[in-house]
């Protein structure tokens, strides 16, 4: 298991909202998609949502599936309404210049290393 703080540090993320559990919320599963309809079927615990979709709908979807955080990829900057909702819902919102593929690969390696 890895934490949001580890993700942020390893992927050189910019933090737009830091949830109250930023330092110790465990990420057990990752969903990477720009289609929020696909994310809505996620039932896993400790979910990190990785996407390039920087809209309020992404935040609302993350809230519905009880995601611990959202990682925006490709250097996307969240809209002001997205940042406001992240604060309201207490969801970490971070962004990296890394592509979705490279972010997923790096996080997969981090999770594998954390299990040993």
Number of strands: 7
Mean pLDDT: 93
Largest sheet entry = 5 strands, mixed
User: Which ranges are low-confidence, i.e. pLDDT below 50, for 5 or more consecutive residues?
Assistant: none
- The rounded Rg comes to 12 Å
Shape: globular
Q: Identify the quaternary structure here.
A: single chain
Q: Which strands sit side by side, in order, in the main sheet?
A: 2-7-6-5-4
What does the model show?
- With 116 residues, the chain is an alpha/beta fold.
- The chain is 39% helix and 22% strand.
- The protein has five helices and seven strands.
- It has helices spanning 4-10, 36-39, 56-64, 80-89, 100-114, and strands at residues 2-3, 14-17, 26-27, 29-32, 47-51, 69-72, 92-95.
- The strands form two sheets. Strands 2-7-6-5-4 form a five-stranded mixed β-sheet, with helices on both faces. The protein has a two-stranded antiparallel sheet with strand order 1-3.
- β5, α3 and β6 (69-72) form a beta-alpha-beta unit.
- α3 packs parallel to α4.
- The longest helix is centred in the last third of the chain and has 15 residues, at 100-114.
- The mean pLDDT is 93.
Topology:
Elements: E1 2-3, H1 4-10, E2 14-17, E3 26-27, E4 29-32, H2 36-39, E5 47-51, H3 56-64, E6 69-72, H4 80-89, E7 92-95, H5 100-114
Parallel strand pairs: 4-5, 5-6, 6-7
Antiparallel strand pairs: 1-3, 2-7
Helix pairs in contact: 3-4
């Amino acid at each position: 298991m890895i934490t949001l703080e580890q993700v942020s540090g390893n992927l050189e993320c910019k933090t737009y909202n830091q949830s109250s559990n930023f330092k110790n919320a465990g990420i057990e599963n990752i969903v990477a998609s720009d289609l929020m309809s696909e994310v809505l079927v996620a039932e896993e615990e400790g979910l990190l949502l990785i996407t390039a979709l920087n809209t309020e709908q992404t935040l609302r979807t993350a809230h519905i599936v009880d995601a611990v955080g959202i990682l925006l990829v490709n250097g996307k900057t969240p809209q002001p309404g997205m940042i406001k909702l992240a604060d309201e819902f207490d969801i970490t919102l971070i962004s990296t210049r890394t592509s979705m593929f490279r972010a997923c690969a790096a996080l997969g390696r981090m999770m594998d290393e954390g299990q040993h």
